[in-house]
Amino acid sequence: MKELVELIAKSLVDYPDEVVVKETIDGDTITIELNVAGDDMGKVIGKQGRIAKSIRTVVKAAASKGDKKVIVDIK
């Protein structure tokens, strides 16, 4: 999941070198923390959060095969 979020985020931002993704696994819950440059925050979130919602939807769909719950935090 970490690689998927990293790939999506790096394709959206102007500063792909500043994209940092951390993955924490706790039982059947996976928490993915996405950190981007301040100037790129708007590009990752999108208007009314549409891009952020789309990222979460894609990651949850990919995680559904493994019966894991995925939480994506954008910071």
UniProtKB/TrEMBL annotation:
Cell compartments where the protein resides: Cytoplasm
PROSITE patterns listed in its UniProt record: KH_TYPE_1 (PS50084)
Xref: SUPFAM superfamilies: Prokaryotic type KH domain (KH-domain type II)
A Pfam family reported for this protein in Swiss-Prot or TrEMBL: KH_KhpA-B
CDD domains xrefs: KH-II_YlqC-like (cd22533)
Gene Ontology MF, one: RNA binding
Signal peptide stretch: none
Domain of life according to the entry: Bacteria
A GO BP entry: peptidoglycan biosynthetic process
Keywords in alphabetical order: Cell shape, Cell wall biogenesis/degradation, Chaperone, Cytoplasm, RNA-binding
GO cellular component assignments: cytoplasm
InterPro entries from the UniProt entry: KH_dom-like_a/b (IPR015946), KH_sf_prok-type (IPR009019), KhpA (IPR020627)
Biological role stated in the UniProt entry: A probable RNA chaperone. Forms a complex with KhpB which binds to cellular RNA and controls its expression. Plays a role in peptidoglycan (PG) homeostasis and cell length regulation.
Entry similarity comment: Belongs to the KhpA RNA-binding protein family.
PANTHER family: RNA-BINDING PROTEIN KHPA (PTHR34654:SF1), UPF0109 PROTEIN SCO5592 (PTHR34654)
Subunit structure, interactors included: Forms a complex with KhpB.
NCBIfam families, sorted: PRK00468.1
The protein's name in its UniProt record: RNA-binding protein KhpA
Gene coding for it: khpA
